[in-house]
Design goal:
Helices cover 65% and strands 4% of the residues. By secondary structure, the protein is mostly helical. The termini are far apart.
Length: 753
């Protein structure tokens, strides 16, 4: 009784502690997954303590069956304590899906308890050092997660103790429960195997020597045939599950992924694995050339290079869904420096490849074994610093704005072991990148490489991190950030990380369901799903979905009302995505002048080049068109690709002056979206210089250059990039344009060899 009370108190303490930690403070996946580890040890040790007493008594097999049931009952009753504590916490912290939480609780800690009880009984039967051997076995099972993560590309792991480890990613949506249910069936089968083996051996150990133990046990008790049949069937099923783990998507090796993608080609420093759905053979040659171009840029800036004959494996997946299936993450592109691997999707190569490449090359001066820094801020900081931004403003300018608005808290904790992960990703990446870029430029890359592995700034720089931060802030104070409004800073950087979001996993799943409804044009269902998500957690993503669904249904006044119902202090009122949808709703409702004001406000926010461009286009169109017919069919209609092109072509032919070029611009974007790159480039080029808005002229030429580049017309692409210099207004854009010109030359030379 005393030991049961002690374990009950321990469960209570653990549950009370977890309810103080964001993301773990409600009945969901994280709470249940973390609880599996103490559950394994508590239930196992308690079982061993009970068994120490019962093994001294002459119990029949039927009695042992009752004993096992008692063990499971006691441990199961103890698990009601953390369940009760976290359920009661729902009075304070919102729990968006209690039913799903209960499902995770059964599939994770309850199943782990059953497995641990069975494992502890079998181990105690054969050794008096049972606690030591049990602890070692549990840790060995848990180490499988580290082993798979280190030796294979995938991030996720299914495990008999933890149940499921999703990997460290920015994906908020977990895999559906189907795979976890399947794997936990194998877990319970393993528990059954341990229980049956215990029943078979429990009465024989004292009668027979170890050398003849197994053959005598089989021969002398004919009544055991049924139990041995269970052992054989369970062993066969577990073996089948192990050897079928690839086809069951429980685990994927590098060979599985390579075979699944289907295509392979090599360059000087890369082995490219890709799908025929992503690239043709000719396009793959271009990708290899681009990879080599970025490799040269990275080694030049880091003063590093890969060892001879050590190539980087570059996996490019045809879609986010395929990437999630193989490595466990849809939204996060990753590098594994210790394996010299990069994993990303075809549509994200241009934006993220160099960033991930920095991680691999920086492995040269990282910690041994992992080839990376022990501090996440150092890893991501150097990647941002080397792959410097080509957006509207640099990380330095954004950080200057954060400092100006007193929105930058102490950054020293960011460089701790866990501080980076607890911050909103945009803020963490930008601040770490700006600081890293500053100390690299000021003190040189060699000193940074010395501090990279451990984050010990005093040893490398002879001064503290706080002192270096002070220097950096003095530098930021000299940067002009007046073009960045306060509202843009709030929207971009002062959002919640996953650790602070309400029901992050549940709302992510609801949002995914709603997105699927939009894809099949079921806007009523999408509105319902997004509304439920927003009621649980008022995020920008959910509100955006609600308003998009309403606009697709032509419920313009309801969309406007949704915005007006927001609290006046809500940051959603300043979010450019929401403001763009509000502008569309005003236009759709016939309030063109108000819509134009809204589009102008979005332009002034300078949130990103894409938003500024879209708002500028909407502003021009809204000013010239008297009806909302164009908005309805172009932005929210369901016309086929060919019909959209035909209608835009007709609108362009029937228009004159500025409107003709606007329609031509939109037609060019449509051709680009559909892969008609040469046609798109010609149309974009023809619009350049005819807009009063310089943003549109610059973007027209950039899009023309990108279109010709995608078409393989590198000389034409260079000509377009050169022309953008007439509209460049900052050094960031100029550096990006110069690099695009250099890329054209490099690819042209490489392809001609």
């Amino acid at each position: 009784v005393t030991c049961v009370r002690s374990e009950a108190l321990l469960y209570l303490i653990i549950a009370v502690a977890l309810k103080q930690v964001p993301l773990f403070n409600y009945l969901g996946f994280e709470f249940s997954a973390l609880l599996t580890i103490p559950v394994a040890f508590i239930s196992g040790f308690l079982t061993i303590q009970f068994l120490d007493d019962h093994l001294t008594k002459p119990l029949t097999r039927r009695t042992w069956l009752y004993v096992v049931m008692d063990y499971l009952t006691v441990n199961g009753m103890l698990l009601l304590i953390p369940l009760a504590v976290i359920s009661a916490n729902a009075l304070v912290v919102k729990n968006c899906s209690f039913t799903q939480g209960l499902a995770y609780y059964f599939l994770l800690p309850v199943c782990t308890m059953m497995f641990s009880v069975a494992l502890a009984m079998l181990i105690r039967l054969f050794t008096k050092y049972s606690r030591l051997f049990f602890s070692f076995t549990v840790l060995l099972v848990l180490s499988q997660i580290l082993f798979i993560t280190y030796t294979e590309p995938q991030l996720f792991s299914y495990n008999f103790i933890l149940g499921y480890f999703p990997g460290i990613t920015y994906d908020e949506q977990l895999s559906d429960l189907t795979m976890l249910v399947l794997f936990r069936e194998f877990t319970l089968l393993a528990a059954l195997l341990c229980f049956v083996l215990f029943f078979l051996f429990v009465g024989a150990k004292k009668k027979y020597r170890w050398g003849i133990f197994f053959p005598v046990r089989i021969a002398i008790r004919q009544g055991d045939r049924m139990l041995w049949s269970v052992v054989a069937l369970a062993s066969f099923t577990l073996a089948f599950g192990h050897f079928s783990r690839h086809s069951l998507h429980i685990m994927h090796t590098a060979e599985d992924i390579q075979q699944g993608l289907g295509k392979r080609t090599e360059s000087e420093h890369f082995i490219l694995y890709y799908s025929k759905d992503s690239y043709s053979a000719e396009q793959a040659r271009v990708i290899k050339a681009e990879a080599e171009f970025h490799y040269r840029k990275v080694i030049e800036r880091l003063h590093e290079r890969l060892p001879e004959k050590k190539k980087i494996s570059l996996y490019i997946y045809p879609s986010s869904a395929a990437k999630k299936t193989y490595i466990g993450t849809a939204n996060t592109n990753i590098a594994k420096p210790w394996r010299r691997e990069i994993h990303l999707t075809a549509d994200s190569f241009e934006e993220t490849f160099r960033h991930e490449l920095v991680h691999v090359v920086a492995g040269n001066f990282g910690l041994p074994i992992v080839n990376a820094s022990a501090r996440m801020a150092m890893n991501e900081g150097v990647a941002v610093a080397i792959d410097w931004s080509n957006e509207t403003f640099s990380p330095h300018t954004y950080c200057a704005a954060l400092l100006r608005d007193s929105a930058m808290s102490s950054i020293e904790p960011l460089f701790s072991y866990t501080g980076f992960a607890t911050q909103h990703s945009t803020l963490a990446y930008t601040v770490a990148g700006s600081f890293s870029k500053y100390i690299i430029d000021k003190h040189g890359i060699e000193l940074f490489k010395k501090v990279f592995a451990t984050g010990n700034f005093m040893t490398a720089y002879g001064t503290s991190l706080s002192s270096l931060v002070g220097e950096w802030k003095q530098f930021l104070a000299t940067i002009d950030c007046s073009a960045i409004p306060v509202s843009t800073v709030r929207t971009m950087f002062l959002q919640q990380s996953i650790f602070r979001k309400t029901c992050a996993r549940v709302t992510a799943q609801r949002n995914a369901n709603a997105l699927q409804a939009i894809r099949v044009k079921n806007y009523v269902q999408a509105e319902q799903e997004f509304s439920a998500s927003f009621d649980d957690a008022p995020t920008a993503f959910a509100l955006r979905g609600v308003m998009q669904s309403l606009l697709a249904q032509k419920k313009y006044d309801e969309a406007i009302q949704r915005y007006n119902q927001l609290d006046k202090h809500s940051m959603l009122k300043e979010n450019p995505v929401i403001l763009l949808l509000l502008g569309d709703a005003l236009w759709g409702a016939g309030k063109n002048s108000e819509a134009q004001i809204m589009y102008s406000e979005i332009q002034a926010l300078q949130y990103s080049s894409a938003f500024t461009e879209t708002a500028a286009l909407r502003n021009e169109l809204c000013s010239a068109l008297k009806t909302n017919h164009f908005l309805e069919w172009y932005a929210y209609g369901s016309a086929s690709d060919s019909l959209r092109i035909a209608e835009l072509q007709q609108a362009m032919n029937e228009s004159r002056g500025q409107m003709q070029f606007l329609f031509q611009y939109l037609l060019a974007k449509e051709h680009y979206r559909q892969g008609h790159f040469e046609r798109a480039g010609t149309l974009f080029a023809n619009t350049a210089g005819f807009f009063e808005e310089p943003t549109l002229s610059f973007n027209a030429l950039m899009h023309a250059g990108d279109s010709f580049y995608r078409a393989g017309l590198y000389e034409q692409a260079k000509a377009m990039y050169w022309q953008t210099k007439n509209y460049i207004q900052d050094s960031v854009a100029e550096e990006y344009v110069d690099e695009r010109i250099a890329l054209c030359d490099f690819v042209l030379t490489t392809m001609s060899e």
